Amino acid sequence: MMEATSAARPRFRTAVAASLALGLVLGVMVSSLRPRSGSASSHREAPLTAADPRIDTTDLYAFNSPDDPATTTLIANWIPFEEPAGGPNFFTFEPGAHYDIDIDNNGDSKADIIYRWIFKDHYRDKGQFLYNTGQVTTLTDPDLNFYQTYTLKRKIPGKSTKTLLSDAMVAPSDVGEVSMPDYGDLRDEAVVPFTDGGAGQSFAGQADDPFALDLRVFDLLYGTDFSEAGDDTLAGFNVNSVALQVPKTALAKGGNPANNPVIGVWSVTARRSTRVHKGSGSIASKGDFVSVSRLGNPLVNEVVIPLRDKDRFNASKPSGDGQFLSYVNDPILPKLINAVYGIPVPDSDPDTDGVQRGDLIDVFLKGLDGLNRPKNVTPSEMLRLNLTTPTCEAPACSEYSRLGVIGGDSAGFPNGRRLADDVIDIALQVVEGELVGNPNDLSDGVDNNDVAFSNAFPYLALPHHGSDPDPH
Prior knowledge:
The chain has helices spanning about 10-15, 20-30, 45-50, 185-190, 220-225, 300-305, 310-315, 325-330, 330-340, 360-365, 425-430, and strands spanning about 55-65, 70-80, 100-105, 115-125, 145-155, 160-170, 190-195, 200-210, 240-245, 260-275, 285-295, 385. With about 475 residues, the protein is α+β, with helices and mostly antiparallel strands.
């Protein structure tokens, strides 16, 4: 499958069992290169966020809504590896923290629009230890002993802040089929409308983790004989999600996507700089808000940014991404693959001094020319989406590909990111030179999510039940 040199090809084939596809093995190798505290996408990707799951952004998605072409959908997930039966407190957003999705609509690497969720805890009876005291059939059911609400704001930095929603209900963790006999109704109730230059929708709550890949690499490279590969490790786990569907006119500069079609998107989680743990068991927070988690393109902080700078990347802004340029231009991953298998390290610009991976700089820092690159772009790491690209969803669209752009589907990653885009395979193939004359079919062996996504906003699959004896 890998089109390497004739010398490299037999070396690689002798390194694996005959029954295992080459693409799967390289996928294994890519997983093995993550830091020991890391895992999928931005699941526990940096030392500080690994110890602080409520502010750990796992994934970010931005795509033109398949069932409402006048709108764009933005989704961000937090709290990796939520065990469905993880009671009695289950999983909550951090009260008072800022959960943001930032939009750059003029290519200058600065936020022009910020959508911000701020959450608040509520208890009906603190004399109880239960999350729910009986069967819960609505979000306002008195038997839901603990619940969260949120405020959603739209901020134009330096100009204005507008409250879009107040006291909106968060869909709870799915305790189980007996406690919540129709969780789908609870999720539907948590989808709330608002107006932002047109009709929009918001959702906050628990969902199935949509990311799919195998993480058993940590068991000595899949058991030393690759017998532990090809299984979706995240199957059965949940995340906490926020989702937003907004008119494209509310996102584009000047309100006209035809004139300014490309937006940049990234998520930021911020909390106050000082937390004081009191002897009474309570916590007090004070000081300015500081960024503690940041995510644009998937996998950047995992396999591009080295360990020494991972927490600094989370605290930084896209406008300062020049400090990380060398990691994109000369990435670690191809060198490690070369050291193990002898596959040549791609060089997209062999005759240009100082530029080794112009293809990766385009994908991660600029956008692809003619597709999702803004005019006069300032290079910076964010997910870029062309608002005018027609949606392409299987089975209605014959061009649909889980590999997105490199699979001939311009509506997929890295032109935004859809829930079903196989970003592991895409990133693997691109980093090994797919865009610069080294076609390959590298894969981690996991192509699909463990459960189907919804056809309507918020599109995420329902969370796994806490009553399931074997959700994984």
